[in-house]
Design a protein that fits this description.
single chain, alpha/beta, Rossmann fold, Dihydrodipicolinate Reductase, domain 2, nine-stranded mixed sheet, about 20% strand, globular, binds NADPH dihydro-nicotinamide-adenine-dinucleotide phosphate, binds 6-O-phosphono-beta-D-glucopyranose, EC 1.1.1.49, NAD(P)-bd_dom_sf, Glucose-6-phosphate 1-dehydrogenase, G6P_DH_AS
Length: about 500
Amino acid sequence: MQTENSCIVIFGASGDLTHRKLIPALYNLFKIGRLGENFSVLGVARSELNDETFRTKMREALIKNEDTTPETLDEFCHHLYYQAVNTADADDYGKLVPRLDELHDKYQTCGNTLYYMSTPPSLYGVIPECLAAHGLNTEEYGWKRIIVEKPFGYDEKTAQVLDVQIHRFFEEHQIYRIDHYLGKETVQNLLVLRFSNGWFEPLWNRNFIDYVEITGAESIGVEERGGYYDGSGAMRDMFQNHLLQVLAMVAMEPPAIINADSMRDEVAKVMHCLRPLTQEDVEHNLVLGQYSAGEVNGNIVKGYLEEKGVPADSHTETYMALRCEIENWRWAGVPFYVRTGKRLPARVTEIVIHFKTTPHPVFSQNAPENKLIIRIQPDEGISMRFGLKKPGAGFEAKEVSMDFRYADLAGAQVLTAYERLLLDAMKGDATLFARTDAVHAAWKFVQPILDYKANGGRIHEYEAGTWGPVAADKLIARQGKVWRKPSGLMKKKV
Ligand code: NDP
Ligand code: BG6
């Protein structure tokens, strides 16, 4: 699929996401020739900027964080424009009509428009309506697509309301719900690893897999986003979207073909098969935590309650661990342990597939189990762990590994998640965007956790720089297991 010439309209253009992720992604796509010349970016927000001041702001952000050259930077910035709009006032959106006409004319973009909502979520239902008030949603002259940033709703009900609001003015094929984890190369690679290797697929089920561990650990705290984060917490911020999508990639059936419908059908099926959590399950299988002051990578850091924008009596979780199950033939009885947290000792997202041990220990009682470690980030790669004979007398088995690092794929030009997803939206490929049924199923699954939180469910304290509350260790210990403490992907020489 080819990228078509288009105008990208970013709502929330004066905000953090725009200068930290969206503009750099567009810049890098431009730099590698994936955008061509016929595109424009129209930034929209309430701040009184103009084309020049917006360009200056974006240029500064690019120079600070990206590998730039003055010529490419100049060329790219000429494609940037800005229009101040009072985002809550439908009449004011009228200003966009002549601006868009002018840009479509200048860049021959034939009315093709990609709207990107990067504003506070309270506007996600408002912007489509205000665009429609000026006919800016109709596809008579060029396609119109709209990217919705996370969070898509705050719970099951609000997600449904939001869907209704957006669907009044945009059809499902025009809506792109972004989950940047789906744009990560290593997440997509899970499908290739599973479905194009005869080795793995036959073993990928309850007969051979003992349990699955999924970790989304971050060493950063809430940074400047304390206000937002406190209303969200680890459950809404990372689990309901990113980690459930990763879990779906690990657990889904092979799609009949690789296209948006087929892929997303399989993802939705997994979400629907998650075993519903009862309140008893939640109490027994969920651990929530909040970090207190501590030391991370040699730096003394504040506790969550001392962070900017966080109320001193906040009951928001910065860590969660859950044992859940998928009720289908492939996965019946296999526990999935999923955890995420801020201020943990390292930034690492990884999946560990723990295989069942041999039926009878021939050589030693504690022969190593077979594990497949899939490192999503950083140090992206795959490590197979298995037992071999320790050299010398006797038959003692020792864990060894066979490792692959993405970095070793010389010459591979890997797009970042936002680069990939922006490009896909410009091509009209929704495969890596969340579909409405899966989003609702995910909210439905987590609703009992939200209820537990709302009813003052227990939050365990953990010291910043540790791997989370002791209660989470006890959760997995019930099955006689311990969480993997991810360090480097590659094993040290034995
Ligand atoms: P910011 O608060 O930094 O930016 C919000 C933007 O919205 C500003 O440009 C603001 O500009 C504009 N805006 C328009 N109308 C309003 C209004 N009524 N009230 C407040 N602001 C308004 O947010 P982020 O850029 O961090 O995030 C944007 C969205 O993306 C959020 O929904 C967030 O959840 C999501 N997101 C952000 C990530 C990040 O890393 N930052 C990561 C993943 C998702 P102005 O005041 O000029 O109108
Ligand atoms: C965002 C969350 O969606 O994902 C952040 O809002 C989190 O809190 C971030 O830090 C993690 O993304 P990544 O790509 O750095 O793993």
